[in-house]
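Record type: ASSEMBLY
Status: queued
Input:
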Amino acid sequence: MGAGHSFTGIAAAPGVRLDLDRLQGLVHVDTDRGRVTLHAGTRLHRIPALLAPYGLAMPNLGDIDRQSLAGAVSTGTHGTGAGYGGLATQVCGVTLVQPDGGLLTVAGDDPLLPAAALSLGALGIIADVTLQCVPAFLLRAEERSEPLTAVLADLPDRVKSADHFEFYWFPHTDRAATKTNTRLPPSSPRRPLPPLRGWLDDSLLANGLFRATCAAGLGVPAAVPAVNRAAARLLGGREYTDASWRVFTQRRTVRFQEMEYAVPAELLPAAFEDLRALIDNRRWRISFPVEVRWAAADDRWLSTAYGQDTGYLAVHRYWREDPADYFAAVEEILLAHGGRPHWGKLHSLDARTLAQRYPRFGQFQALRNRLDPDRVFSNGYLDRVLGA
Ligand SMILES: Cc1cc2nc3c(=O)[nH]c(=O)nc-3n(C[C@H](O)[C@H](O)[C@H](O)COP(=O)(O)OP(=O)(O)OC[C@H]3O[C@@H](n4cnc5c(N)ncnc54)[C@H](O)[C@@H]3O)c2cc1C
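Status: finished
Output:
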């Protein structure tokens, strides 16, 4: 297991569970090629300081950085940016401990790398991961509260013209919080958020506000639309420039459950409209925003973006609310749009249905049968999604 941040039982074990939290740090740096090898358990938030002396950075990150490196790549963790892949696309080598204790190194042009870089923990224990990094860079963040109709009207242009674009739609409102990040060279002037503003925005507004909207949703569901409208207007409206990892990631202190599906990028607008109509037509009161992101097509066999430019739709529910009806109805819509579920987030698919959505699924199963025929590296979740 990594940091235990998956919403599914993917890191749960019926027998022995190996905690790699003490296997952290830098193993090797190839300065000529900008490649770094890190111990598998290294938490993402530790990596920037390890890379700083070499002037390197990870090209893209997700919303948070509490995960372990191996856990994040193994589930297909991704951020946003139509021209950028998920974290597993940064992997150019892994060392796997096999069931007999032997080491298997998969690196470079090895045809197994696209399988081993995103393997759900099913091919062995990852001991180290080699990442292709990029020169350190800054990001200029522009965050706005905008009418949803305006965002949807020129969505393809926004997605294409920005390095990293995403938006959050607040259900029961016509408001969206947009975030557009632009990559800048490290010599550009830094304009970080003043510490007090950063604390106020993140602790009080982002997390405190979500806690309040969630509490309102539980206590007085009818108040959710008004609370969401207020939240949507309060969030957004700031610009700053800082180190890439500081801008990519945030703190999340409100507990929630999440389901996220990938759909072909060109189908995302239609999928989003169907999702919006569903929420409008049902009597649910959804306090958490719907998150919308993008990623470039990649070649990782079990990547949600395998072979297709991809859009992501993520739905959330406060941990004290039952997500079952909402998630099931959203899942039906996203499956109809060719969806593939995030491996670390809630979904109901099994190996039979997943095989139809991943062209290389059978090859992955064959590789698993060869490397781990006795299922040393399995659990209930993997039995369900890959087959026993
Ligand atoms: C608040 C929050 C925000 C999130 N934001 C995002 C986001 O922006 N984008 C996104 O895509 N996802 C996101 N996620 C999901 C998260 O990134 C994934 O679930 C990720 O796998 C969690 O990493 P972990 O280290 O906690 O792994 P775990 O959940 O502990 O494990 C995940 C899988 O990795 C395997 N694994 C871990 N270490 C090893 C190893 N050394 N060798 C072999 N297998 C291993 C485990 O066996 C398991 O199969 C978020 C989750 C939370 C809770």
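Annotation: The pocket of flavin-adenine dinucleotide is lined by residues 1-6, 10-11, 20, 40, 62-64, 67-68, 70-72, 74-75, 77-78, 120-121, 125-126, 252, 342, 344 (CB under 6 Å).
Annotation: Residues 86 and 317 are 24 Å apart (CA to CA).
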